[in-house]
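Summary for the steering committee. One of the milestones for this cycle was to obtain a three-dimensional model of the protein with FE2/S2 (inorganic) cluster bound, which we needed before selecting residues for the alanine scan. The sequence and ligand used are listed below.
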Amino acid sequence: MDVYTKCSNYATDTCPCVLAERGQCVECSMCRGEDFCTCTDTVSFCIQQELINHGGRAKPQRQSMRCEVTYVKEMDDVFRFIRIRVPDPEAFIHLGAYVFVRRDENPFFDVPISVLYEDYSSGTIGLFIQMVGIKTECFRSIEKGDHIYVRGPYFNGMQGRGAVGHLRDGRAAVVCRGIGFMPSLHVIGALWRNHNEVDVYLDWGKSGRELLEFFKNLQEIHVTEVSLCDGKGELTEDFDRVVAKAEADGVGLIHLGLSDYLLKQAIGRIEETDPHHRKAISCINNSHICCGEGICGACTKDLGADHTVHLCKEQLDLYEYGRLL
Ligand code: FES
């Protein structure tokens, strides 16, 4: 399968990274030792030249920072909402931003969490933590004033960053189910900042209604309630109605905050109504991120004998992404 991908780390402060140093850059064909440059760069950043400028070594990579917890809300037995003070909240504004957090000294406990929003006035970012295993269990007893380790930000917490970033003075539809709503809050904020009208459709899913109400009210989001999943786990006609309304309203982008199973169906249904892919779509990235650096292989998908995609770093065409799920 020939799929074009783009590295979400491209041209950031940490590019070139260790992958370029080892001849495995996901963006630069020359760094991979190929004969021709296949770069489609439009920001005048040559990874190979940067690598040469740095003596063939990667730039300094993200390090864990010890950050103060300034607010804790116990949502229920399983969920915690926390705010932490970070040195530079502006760095977290980028679409798809996520961080690795842990309370333990041991970096094996690093767990990736999407940034819900950043607050410049208090210098904090908001994180929502679901306690589902040994890595997150230690957050059960977290209190205001505690310190946690934070590594990041990384930028591939969503697919379709370009589509969201390019929509200005337009209209978007955001369709979410359950806790897929949380990582979508950052997207809604970005769309608002670019003066877009945003229609939010929310299926409460299996998450407690109170939980999602809290975050909805936190950002003063008006939502239309929908039921997106039937008893057999299939997308309902409500979704088709949302897509038809989006088409009638001239919506330029549909963002999907759904589980992979529903996401695959949703992308397929949008493609049925729009076979020429005129409508932009974006979605949350549910891949199993472990190192976040393109090294461990936990998030990879094989596209054929010689092309492996690292979903912790690479941005794909959304319709191709849907086929991979
Ligand atoms: S999470 Fe390790 S390679 Fe992507």
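Key point for the committee: The chain has nine helices and 16 strands.
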